[in-house]
Amino acid sequence: MGAGIRLAVESGLLSSSTHSKPIEDDESDEGDMSGSFLDEEEDKDIPSYQFERESDKIFKLKKQFYDQRREYNKLLTQDARWDNLVAKMQHSADNLK
């Protein structure tokens, strides 16, 4: 773990296991599909509004994952740039001797 990411974790901006707030499950759902795929027979028994609600949940989860990944990659980029800067400064300092 690089210095930038370590600093973000230690300061509380990020947790070490997840890089965003935990995703909370909506307890108000009337029908729990448990993430399983339905065959065509079961498909007819479920109203379309439940499919739309599940589709919206999946969309939100995908966006949250994308945001977490983007935030993590941003920290990695900053960390890599810092490491490169330190290495170049060390190299320049060694050449002064």
Short description:
The protein is mostly helical. It has helices at residues 3-10, 40-43, 48-96.
Plain-language structure description:
The chain contains 3 helices and no strands. The longest helix is centred in the last third of the chain and has 49 residues, at 48-96. It has a domain at 1-15 and 60-97. It has helices at residues 3-10, 40-43, 48-96. Helix content is 63%, strand content 0%. By secondary structure, the chain is mainly alpha-helical.
State the share of residues found in helices, binned by percent: 55-70%
Element-by-element helix/strand order: HHH
Flag low-confidence runs: none
Mean pLDDT: 75
Specify the structural class.
Answer: mainly alpha
Radius of gyration: 23 Å
Q: Classify the beta-strand content into a percent band.
A: under 5%
Main pleated sheet: none
- Number of alpha- plus pi-helical segments: 3
Coarse morphology: rod-shaped
Span between termini: 31 Å
- Compute the number of strand runs: 0
Primary descriptors:
single chain, 3 helices, 0% strand
Q: Layout of helices and strands, plus pairs?
A:
Blueprint: H1 3-10, H2 40-43, H3 48-96
